[in-house]
Amino acid sequence: MLPCVAMGEPVTFAVDRMLGRLARWLRILGHDVAYGPQLSGRALAACARREGRLLVTRDTRLVRDPDVPPHVFITSDRFREQLAELARVVPLGAGFLGRCLDCNRPLERVAKESIAGRVPPFVYATQEVFHRCPRCGRLYWAATHRARMLSELQTMGLGEAAAAAEEAHG
Fold first, then answer.
1. How far, in whole angstroms, is CA 104 from its chain's centroid?
2. What values do phi and psi take at 156, rounded to 5?
3. Most exposed of 21, 44, 57, 152 (fewest Cβ within 10 Å)?
4. Do 98 and 107 touch, CB atoms closer than 8 A?
């Protein structure tokens, strides 16, 4: 059972704790993902229902519940296949690297001068654009990992989603 996905509205997810790597890659793609060790079973379903999120799970007991909210049951135990399974069902790519990978908050662009001394000197000298998580303070900048992530998404057949999200949210 899946929710209707409004045109242009990115899907938000509630991902069970068995799918940590998938949750991280959904955040890389820019999706709002509720995920954590406390989210499994009924707590996960309650979160999805309360916040209007698409539940993503591998828990067979949970999906047998007749009151389970809109969900996708993931069959694979490999994250690349999990991402492909999900991409076949819902559109992915809401803003490539636009969220904190740890606490899920949308990142804010910050002035380069404001982070002096908080990043390695080489990074400060070679990068112009920096983003910060407003909750945990983690700093982000475009480095070689960005190209590797885009390449990985391309390999998985999700390069278009990442490229579109990157172009839209820069």
1. 8
2. -80, 0
3. 21
4. yes
Q: What is the DSSP letter of 82?
A: H
Residue 50 has, within 13 A of its CA and on its CB side, a CA count of 8
Please give the Cα distance from 131 to 142 (Å, whole number).
9
Compute the distance between CA of residue 36 and CA of residue 20 in angstroms, rounded to an integer. Answer: 8
pLDDT digits (tens, 9 = 90+) for 62-107: 888 888 999 999 999 998 899 999 999 998 887 888 899 999 999 9
**All domains of the chain, ordered by start, with CATH?**
13-100+145-169 (3.40.50)
The model carries a pTM of 0.85
Torsion of CA 108, 125, 153, 80, to 10 degrees: -90
Backbone angles phi, psi at 35, to 5 degrees: -155, 140
